[in-house]
Write a structure and sequence with these properties.
The chain is mainly beta and 334 residues long. It has 1 helix and 29 strands. Strands 1-9-8-7-6 form a 5-stranded antiparallel sheet, with no helix packed on it.
């Protein structure tokens, strides 16, 4: 069932009052950036863009940019959308309140609903390939797909904790989901079977990221701890503790760098050896999202529409004007 096929040119500033809370942001599936294609007169989708960035949020808000500065905003669903991800440059998924999952096959032009067989709020979604994906959310809700979301299969409950982050190491067949009370759900066979464990001493886990082979897995918690695993998420060790709660973590595809972000504008930079150091960003806004793009640029987003980026491994940070005061809760770069 199509959700939307039109692309009205409405600025995110103009829609900020109607959509008070953007709740996820995703970078383009490729790092290239091209001008937004204009709708054709007959309403048909234009040729797919070579790169795009998108935000989803309250009342199904979907905001999109092709140049990193000019945003357009529309609604693609009735429900709040909490998370978004993409694979390649055409396939994308958004998920949110009341079990909503939506899918695009044309770079965000049109969206169709998928049935995840749950009514729980969904907080995190990730695809390792165009077919293999996982979505997770409140009350331990977990579902997987092997066919791009045409069929979602719910996993028998392993925890009652809210699950707030997911990660996939597709080449290793590893799926991970983390959440409150330090819980870690893990599959080593692409979602066929799962185990549940907790990280001793961990607080509520807020985010997780991994490289494609699960050689390095990083997670952060609301107590300010950053955790690492070198055995595909089977065991974790504390690497550092911040004085502020950490709410998101991002790992470069080649493991050369990582960042963790959190309350009060906190950003920690990680070296390949596992040493973390705080950097100055010029913002005191709580940062709830982080991503490292393929070209090495680092982004962090959070309260009051704050979005900052660094092109020099965190040495200096520059604000990105989004024209909105909406809170940003997640950043993805696949």
């Amino acid at each position: 069932m199509p959700l939307s096929t039109a692309r009205p040119a409405v600025s995110s500033r103009a829609r900020a009052g109607a959509f008070a809370s953007l709740v996820a942001v995703a970078t383009a599936c490729s790092s290239a950036s091209t001008p937004a294609p204009a709708p054709s007169g007959d309403g048909a989708a234009p040729p797919p863009p070579s790169g795009w960035m998108a935000a989803v949020g309250a009342l199904g808000t979907f905001a999109q940019t092709f140049d990193g500065s000019t945003w357009t905003t529309r609604s693609i669903a009735m429900q709040d959308l909490y998370t978004v991800t993409c694979v390649g440059n055409l396939d994308g998924w958004a998920a949110g309140a009341a079990g909503t999952v939506a899918h695009t096959i044309d770079g965000g032009w049109a969206w169709a609903l998928q049935n995840a067989h749950t009514g729980a709020d969904l907080r995190a979604i990730r695809f390792g390939t165009a077919t293999l994906g996982v979505v997770a959310g409140d009350t331990g809700t977990l579902a997987i797909t092997q066919d791009g979301g045409t069929t979602w299969t719910t996993v028998a409950p392993l925890t009652a904790s809210a699950l707030r982050g997911v990660a996939i190491a597709a080449t290793a067949g590893v799926m991970l989901a983390v959440g409150d009370a330090g819980v870690v759900l893990r599959s080593g066979d692409a979602g066929a079977t799962w185990t549940v464990a907790t990280i001793p001493g961990a607080g509520d886990l807020q985010g997780i990221d991994t490289d494609a082979d699960a050689h390095l897995v990083l997670a952060v918690d609301a107590s300010g701890a950053a955790w690492s695993s070198s055995d595909a998420g089977q065991h974790f060790a504390r690497e550092t503790t911040s004085s502020a709660a950490l709410l998101a973590v991002a790992l470069a595809g080649d493991d050369s760098a990582a960042i963790a972000v959190g309350v009060g504008g906190t950003i920690l930079e990680r070296t390949p050896s596992g040493t973390w150091a705080a950097v100055t960003t010029g913002t005191s806004a709580t940062l709830r999202a982080a991503v490292i793009a393929d070209d090495g640029r680092q982004y962090a987003g959070g309260d009051s529409g704050t979005l900052v980026f660094s092109a020099n491994a965190g040495a200096t940070w520059t604000g990105v004007p989004l024209g909105t005061e909406a809170t940003l809760y997640a950043l993805d770069d696949l």
